[in-house]
């Protein structure tokens, strides 16, 4: 009988074929439905913004790698994902030179200065959006109605009461399909849910953060209902604005979200509560981006206090 030979090696013992490039490729595929929807509803303006953001992010990372004589990471597709997400978080009417500035800030300041992919402390695309909103508030809040192409208010602005003139809320169906004003990638909840299903199927993300984030907003949105929507208020809250986009594609960022499932649930629930607080009582109609950015900063604290017990240490007390 032949002897069985075992290979003894150090941990980890779990192996996978995933690389940064394959994961980012899956994210890009998941973002395609929302990309197509954004271009369909907002036409060539959206396409120009998307191309400008993606190209600017890739070039910014390549230039940084050349200038610092570091390994070229521009081909791992992470800059493509960042560019797409940044474009998704701005209105289609944003001047392209502002898109370039936002892309450079996102890659150089938020990502590369902190050490590159895997070392940034907040989500780069959301930080880029916050930077653009602080720098160019008028351009970042000029919304186009995809139905008639005219400038108009977003559903969140109407709910907030900052839009005069008795503007009417779009229907729930219009919000689900994407026939509402807003940022390029956030209008179609249907397209984002298709991407969510793909990410779950490919096991790129788990359900914990998206479901808990959206669920918290659904429950609190129903309790603190706005706009005379009755029992549909919570559902409407997750259909409009950046909640779907943020909860599925940005709150789940590996680098800026907790490592454990319990930590991810805590992260998502608090972020969802913050989003509703900002939307209802804050001075800005949208609270999604800031809720995630704030919780990004608490991830090290969550990971410190919410971690699995090491096998074999149950009941063991430290000396002294």
From TrEMBL:
It is a multi-pass membrane protein. Its cofactor is FMN. Keywords: Cell membrane, Electron transport, Flavoprotein, FMN, Membrane, Phosphoprotein, Translocase, Transmembrane, Transmembrane helix, Transport. Its EC number is 7.-.-.-. It is found in: Cell membrane. InterPro entries: NqrB/RnfD, RnfD_bac. Coiled coil: none annotated. The chain crosses the membrane at residues 23-41, 47-65, 96-114, 126-144, 176-200, 207-227, 233-252, 264-282. It is an enzyme of class 7 (translocase). The modification FMN phosphoryl threonine is found at residue 154. Part of a membrane-bound complex that couples electron transfer with translocation of ions across the membrane. The complex is composed of six subunits: RnfA, RnfB, RnfC, RnfD, RnfE and RnfG. Belongs to the NqrB/RnfD family. This is Ion-translocating oxidoreductase complex subunit D. The lineage of its organism: Bacteria, Bacillati, Bacillota, Clostridia, Eubacteriales. The gene is rnfD.
